[in-house]
Design goal:
Elements (H helix, E strand, L loop, with lengths): L11 H10 L12 H26 L6 H24 L7 H5 L2 H33 L12 H28 L8 H4 L4
Function: Part of the tripartite ATP-independent periplasmic (TRAP) transport system.
InterPro entries: DctQ, TRAP_DctQ
Membrane topology: Multi-pass membrane protein
Length: 192
């Protein structure tokens, strides 16, 4: 048996058809939820504020003080609303090593308890943020005459979304009979 490669001539038409056969992959924006788009919008406002701060400080040599405060408050919004995205996708840090050594029924029970604790935590945090907003009220930002309660409302929105997404995740775990803690491979695509 010969190990020599066999090549055949390819016509220009065959080459042209190979480009036609490759279909452009379709973009699916359906995988993104409300919190993804809100976090993205706030992120771009933050990026523009940081760019404006950099430009005015290093190019114009006269920085705008308000851009730093706006960027800071935008970062707060991105973190809390983006955390809701992580709850929806089960991407928060978790310890799943214990589940490898537990019997399946015990792992299932522990996972359900953790889902319930997570729901209770986000519900309580939502209540605390709401009480905090009521106490602070219309406190103004430092460099611009704008109320801080919009920042706190973004945090409240983040916790409400985390609460709702944790309820949604718990229902999904209950229906499918396992969670990301019990079978992480089912969520990251490594399970066959």
């Amino acid at each position: 048996m010969s190990t020599a490669e066999i090549h055949r001539q390819i016509t220009a038409d065959e080459i042209a058809h190979t480009f036609e056969e490759e279909a452009t992959p379709k973009v699916d924006l359906g995988i993104y939820a409300f919190e993804d788009w809100v976090a993205l919008a706030i992120f771009w406002v933050m990026a523009l504020a940081v760019f404006l701060q950099f430009f005015t400080r290093y190019v114009l040599n006269d920085s705008y003080a308000w851009t730093e405060e706006i960027a800071t408050y935008c970062l707060i919004g991105v973190v809390f609303i983006g955390a809701a995205m992580c709850v929806r996708l089960s991407r928060h840090i978790q310890v799943d090593l214990v589940y490898r050594y537990l019997p399946r029924p015990a792992g299932r029970a522990l996972s359900t308890v953790i889902d319930l604790i997570r729901i209770a935590f986000f519900g309580y945090a939502t209540k605390l943020v709401w009480v905090y907003i009521q106490i602070i009220g219309d406190e103004q930002m430092t460099t611009i005459n704008f109320p801080k309660n919009y920042v706190y409302y973004a945090v409240l929105l983040g916790f409400v979304l985390m609460f709702l997404r944790s309820v949604q995740a718990a229902l999904q775990h209950w229906r499918q009979g396992y969670s990301v803690l019990e079978r992480p491979g089912a969520y990251d695509g490594s399970e066959i």
